[in-house]
From TrEMBL:
PANTHER family: DIPHOSPHOINOSITOL POLYPHOSPHATE PHOSPHOHYDROLASE (PTHR12629), DIPHOSPHOINOSITOL-POLYPHOSPHATE DIPHOSPHATASE (PTHR12629:SF0). Pfam families: NUDIX. SUPFAM superfamilies: Nudix. The lineage of its organism: Bacteria, Pseudomonadati, Pseudomonadota, Alphaproteobacteria, Hyphomicrobiales. Its cofactor is Mg(2+). This is Nudix hydrolase domain-containing protein. It comes from the Bacteria. Residues 13-144 form the Nudix hydrolase domain. Keywords: Hydrolase, Magnesium, Metal-binding.
Length: 151
């Protein structure tokens, strides 16, 4: 599927991200983070929008490729965060990731990027402390405090 390098009206790169989550036996919710390929820092699965797919569908595909999960994705974004994207040519670009909620139904044993990334389940509070991007940490911290109430 062709990837689209999209920017907003201010020239900021725009990506789509998945927030994979599951309901635990005690009623709490956990989220699945993956490591980046470049620096092995914890993050949400994310990528560029894709031609022929809605942003929600592209976020779900990124979650499948990077985290090895299948699930149901919300059509409406639940938030966004800003970060600095390292491009393939070594340059950087201010970017924004629009986040889509993905309820995890299945964890795959084999997936496209299994040999390039790690995946791990976290509570929202621990995920907020583990992620590399400060704006994502703030989003997850707010989510852990019930702002916004998404689940």
């Amino acid at each position: 599927m062709a990837k689209l390098l999209r920017t907003n009206d201010f020239g900021i790169g725009r990506q789509v991200a998945a927030l994979p989550w599951r309901l635990e036996e005690d009623g709490s919710r956990s989220i699945l983070l993956v490591t980046s390929r470049t620096n092995q820092k914890w993050m949400l699965p994310k990528g560029w929008p894709m031609a022929g797919k809605s942003d929600a569908e592209a976020a779900l595909q990124e979650a499948r490729e990077e985290a090895g999960i299948e699930g149901t994705v919300s059509d409406t974004p639940i938030g966004s965060y800003h970060f600095i994207k390292l491009l393939d040519d070594g340059t950087t670009k201010p970017s924004q990731a629009v986040i889509y909620s993905v309820r995890v139904l299945t964890q795959l044993n084999k997936w496209d990027e299994k040999d390039e990334r790690r995946r791990k389940w976290f509570s929202l509070r621990k995920a907020a402390k583990a992620v590399f991007e400060p704006d994502l940490a703030k989003f997850l911290s707010n989510l852990a405090s019930g702002r916004p109430a998404l689940f």
